[in-house]
Specification:
alpha/beta
């Protein structure tokens, strides 16, 4: 198999995970094989996901378990991008976190102090950082609301209202953000993940390639494809995740390419 002609101009890929490489815990086997082949052809790949529930090390281990030769520097999640941005722009600080252990690990890895609920109520926080949290509850809303109303910067790892799973669509970080926005009366000050330019800029810097040499591949029109458009990059929508053909037809946001799976990036042997 060879790379189809329309993709030969690209030297690198920004590649989503959920809905592209796997759905929930189920790998998309033909996509895994396609990634292996793309790496063999010498394309530089940066796996970029809005999912902050796992750390980059967790993603590295999972990709390696599928037989892919991947290192942690080829992985960018919204938690890591958030941590980098807050360290570089604000010099770090204290944070009350609505999110899971993967997000906490990335924030602490960049020197941010993660507060308990009690510490946040007593001392306040520099940031309230909200990602996907499968143990979201009333007191997390209340603590976030109080800190934001007392001046904490409201930071969202990403705005995805849903995410794909083996059970179908489930609530994503955007659902938690909406609840906290309603309570605090404030929208996030910063949204880091796709479609924001922040995460694409960090990924491009790590790839060391020009924008016109990198193709963005994802399964969501509102994050992957819209993010590529904002970043001035070409995009490929795959139909293995969230977006259905009918949604694509009615959407004002259009990708440059559409395929059933990334495995279709190759010509078929005669």
């Amino acid at each position: 198999m060879m790379l189809r002609q329309e993709f030969e101009a690209f030297s690198g890929l920004i590649l989503d995970l959920d809905g592209v490489i796997w759905v929930g815990e189920r790998p998309i086997q033909e996509a895994v094989e396609a990634v292996r082949r793309l790496k063999e052809l010498g394309l530089k790949i940066m796996f970029v996901t809005n999912n902050s529930t796992r750390s980059r090390r967790d993603y590295e281990m999972r990709l390696r378990s599928l037989g892919l030769d991947v290192n942690v520097e080829e992985i960018m999640n919204s938690g890591y991008a958030t941590a980098l941005l807050l360290r570089e722009k604000y010099g770090g600080g204290s944070a009350y976190v609505v999110g899971e252990i993967g997000l906490v690990e990335e924030l602490e890895g960049q020197g941010l102090k993660v507060l308990t609920r009690e510490e946040c109520w007593r001392d306040g926080a520099d940031f309230v950082i909200v990602g996907m949290d499968r143990e979201f509850n009333y007191w997390k809303i209340a603590t976030s609301m109080r800190a934001i109303r007392h001046g904490a910067l409201f930071v969202a790892t990403n705005g995805d209202k849903t995410f794909p799973s083996e059970m179908g669509l489930l609530p994503g970080a955007g659902s938690m953000i909406a609840a906290i926005s309603a309570a605090s009366g404030k929208e996030p000050d910063i949204v880091v993940g796709k479609p924001s330019s922040h995460i694409f800029d960090i990924a491009l810097k790590k790839l060391g390639l020009r924008r016109d040499k990198v193709l963005v591949i994802g399964d969501r029109i509102d994050t992957d494809i819209e993010g590529a458009r904002r970043a001035g990059m070409k995009s490929l929508l795959v139909l293995t995740g969230v977006t259905r053909k009918e949604e694509l037809m009615s959407s004002a946001i259009k990708p440059d390419f559409v395929l059933g799976s990334i495995s279709e990036m190759f010509t078929q042997d005669p």
